[in-house]
Design a protein that fits this description.
Layout (H helix, E strand, L loop, with lengths): L5 E10 L6 E5 L12 E6 L2 E13 L3 E6 L5 H7 L3 E5 L20 E4 L3 E10 L6 E6 L2 E6 L5 E5 L4 E4 L11
Length: 174
């Protein structure tokens, strides 16, 4: 399994017990969706290694408490601290309406209600507090906030993202 075929689940942040249990900080608004996992890929030395799960539960509602079959003591758990967990993209639930995964909209054409055809989604900048669409238009990059009020329609069939950017925003880039 390659990393490009997977999505980030979370990161192992600390040990829970001397028996090798670990706490995972999940990258989700819905931690309950991960309570049925049987296995997960752990990134070690730039490789994804499958780990089978013996038991798991939510810990203080935001962390996932996990016991891997192969991890039975503190030394084994120490070796996994700070590692990232991944699952195959095929396990992501399908989204509808104006909800989308960032990876799925790369390459979508973008139209704006006022401007018209705007370009193509080249990427998503999620390193800032306000996540941004990176739209390539005539050799220029246009950044538009990812916001429910701006996103009017996600046409998955035709790969078109319909937006209504705030007045003057697009003009700043042209």
């Amino acid at each position: 399994m390659q990393k490009k075929d997977c999505f980030f689940v979370g990161k192992i942040v600390k040990k829970y017990s001397f028996k090798g249990e670990l706490l995972v900080k999940l990258d989700t608004d819905d931690p309950e969706q991960f309570l049925e996992m049987e296995s997960v890929f752990v990134e070690q030395h730039k490789n994804l290694i499958p780990f089978f799960i013996e038991k798991l539960s939510l810990h203080k509602s935001t962390l996932l408490r996990v016991q891997f079959e192969e991890v039975k003591n503190e030394a084994d758990a120490d070796a996994l601290l700070g590692t990232e967990l991944f699952l195959p993209l095929s396990l992501l639930p399908k989204l509808s309406g104006t909800k989308f995964y960032y990876h799925e909209i790369i390459g979508f054409k973008v139209t704006d209600a006022n401007f018209g055809k705007l370009g193509v989604v080249a990427g998503v900048n999620d390193s800032t507090p306000q996540h941004l669409f990176e739209i390539e238009f005539n050799g220029k990059d246009i950044l538009i906030p990812i916001n429910d009020e701006i996103i009017k329609k996600v046409d998955r069939e035709n790969k078109i993202l319909h937006l209504e950017a705030p007045d003057g925003l697009i003009a700043l880039y042209l």
